[in-house]
Design goal:
By secondary structure, the protein is α/β, with parallel strands linked by helices. 35% of the residues lie in helices and 21% in strands. Pfam families: Amino_oxidase (PF01593), NAD_binding_8 (PF13450).
């Protein structure tokens, strides 16, 4: 099975993001070298790419390089060594991860180019012109800002939810109310979540909460805070409570650019600006694909296996009559959420308060912006001039919305106006601005088609040489480390000559898989 120069292995991977490139390198490590990766964009990395604008870099969506999987941590550190932090205690939350002997010792320094930095994590909620911890922590600061009456009523609401939980949990609203109480849900979760998804929480599947929020609860947040106050330390059990993480010096795209370079150097074929337009099936197997290159020419590429990270909606459409009409109908109606990132550059004098955050979740009413990143705090090397602050404002929408179709000048003006309106900025105008559109960023966990997703999954899994991996490839709201693990498993099966699609779907289904280290 290891000789890929035979006709037995001719692997095509659609998408050069975390899943696609991980699969490519894992297949090469297994001795398979007849591999072609097609990427529709001009950059690798998918939504984990880094976009440069006038020397300033944008991390689309924000990507912490932290995982409860030792394998993932080791994989990253084999490609990019960790630069020794000036304060070694800053790596306290990472020490128990990736200490494997499989990773060579590193003498890397921050001045080196291809390194991972140890960064501090700070995310906060901005509500009523005040900052609250994210995730919410019932510490004295939070209780003081809420006031005694809200603290009391929120507490009663939480106790009531524990005594009278909603069973079964059908919707995201059920999921959140059961874990935080109705009043806290209404105050801090409902409006923001509906801004992100564009539909009521009662129409979103509880599976989204299980995927993204998982086992985080008020009790565990309080326990973590008390341990910290008492100096008990210990490992943070929840991913969202981890306080340090690794980060490529020049943004997440640097990791995937490094991976792509390694793949090509080892003999892999990487075709950029190559969009898959047809998937050819015969006898229930994928025979090959048709793609269009940057010059508009079409090409036919045969394959023994197809690994897809493209949106399932597009995959099934490209396969045409390869799937029954009912399957095509379900796929065509899958929902996605798109978003726009607006980069705004300001002199630090225009920022009235200290912003040490990676992310700020905007809960203020009357504005469109949902979240703000401060790229200086992800890595100081993301910003050309340290006397400036480089922000990324995230707006959630659909491709048919007026917001998506707003002209760039108007979008920049609105973004700046909202920053001034909520009090994060004091300036007449930004020094620079850029608008980036990101289609199909989030697979939707709602709509009639999603309720029938199991039918679609069954039909796709029945194609033995088609492997779905990654976020859009599986229509699952995964982080990049989850996507990498699905790619690892798919590569293992191909190299071993076995097919077990359930093993791929089973990754990160259990609530405890990713969030709680065994």
């Amino acid at each position: 099975m290891s000789n890929s120069n035979s006709t037995e292995h001719a692997i095509v991977i659609v998408g050069a993001g975390p899943a696609g490139l991980t699969a490519a390198l894992e297949l090469q490590a297994a001795g398979i070298d007849n591999i072609t990766v097609l990427e529709a964009d001009t950059q690798v990395g998918g939504i984990s790419r880094t976009v440069e604008h006038h020397g300033n870099r944008i991390d689309i969506g924000g990507h912490r390089f932290f995982s409860k999987s030792d394998w993932v941590m080791d994989w990253w550190r084999k490609l990019m060594p960790v630069a020794a932090p000036a304060d070694t205690s800053s790596g306290r939350e990472l020490r128990y991860q990736g200490a494997s002997a499989n990773v060579p010792a590193s003498n890397a320094k921050e001045s080196d180019e291809g390194v991972l930095l140890v960064r501090s994590r700070l995310s906060r909620i901005y509500f009523n012109k005040q900052f609250f911890d994210y995730p919410l922590k019932l510490n004295p600061d939070t209780l003081l800002k809420l006031g005694p009456w809200k603290t009391f009523t929120f507490g009663l609401s939480y106790v009531w939810a524990k005594i009278h939980p909603r069973k079964p949990e059908h919707s995201l609203e059920d999921f959140l109310v059961n874990r935080f109480g109705r009043k806290l849900y209404l105050q801090f979760f409902k409006e923001y979540t509906e801004k992100v998804w564009g539909v009521p929480c009662g129409e979103i599947s509880a599976a989204w909460g299980a995927q993204r929020i998982k086992s985080l609860s008020i009790v565990k947040a309080i326990t973590h805070a008390l341990k910290k106050v008492l100096g008990l330390g210990g490992k943070a059990e929840q991913t969202s409570l981890i306080e340090s993480f690794l980060y490529p010096k020049y943004g997440p795209g640097q990791m995937w650019e490094t991976a792509a370079q390694r793949f090509v150097a080892q003999g892999g074929m990487l075709l950029m600006q190559s969009r898959v337009e047809g998937i050819h099936m015969h006898g229930g197997h994928v025979q090959g694909i048709t793609y269009r290159d940057a010059q508009g020419s079409t090409h036919l590429l045969s394959c023994s296996h197809l690994l897809s990270t493209m949106p399932i909606k597009d995959l099934v459409q490209a396969a045409g009559s390869g799937f029954p009409q009912e399957v095509r109908s379900i796929a065509s109606q899958l929902s996605y959420r798109d978003f726009i990132t607006v980069g705004l550059l300001y002199p630090r004098s225009a920022i009235p308060r200290q912003l040490d955050d990676n992310w700020i979740y905007i809960q203020e009413p009357g504005v469109n912006v949902g979240r703000v990143q401060v790229f200086n705090n992800w890595s100081p090397y993301m910003v050309a001039d340290p006397t400036t602050l480089w922000m990324g404002l995230e707006f959630f929408c659909k491709e048919e919305d007026a917001l998506w179709n707003m002209d760039e000048a108007s979008m920049k003006a609105m973004a700046h106006k909202e920053m001034v309106q909520i009090g994060l900025v004091r300036a007449d105008a930004p020094l620079d601005a850029v608008v980036l559109h990101v289609p199909k960023a989030y697979p939707g966990y709602f709509g009639e088609a999603y309720t029938r997703f199991d039918e679609l999954q069954t039909a796709l899994d029945a194609v033995p040489n088609l492997f779905l991996i990654g976020r859009n490839g599986m229509h699952r709201y995964n982080n990049q480390d989850h996507s990498m693990l699905t790619a690892k498993e798919a590569a293992r099966q191909i190299a071993a000559g076995v097919v077990d699609k359930a093993a791929i779907w089973g990754i990160n289904v259990d609530d405890e898989y990713h969030e709680e280290k065994k």
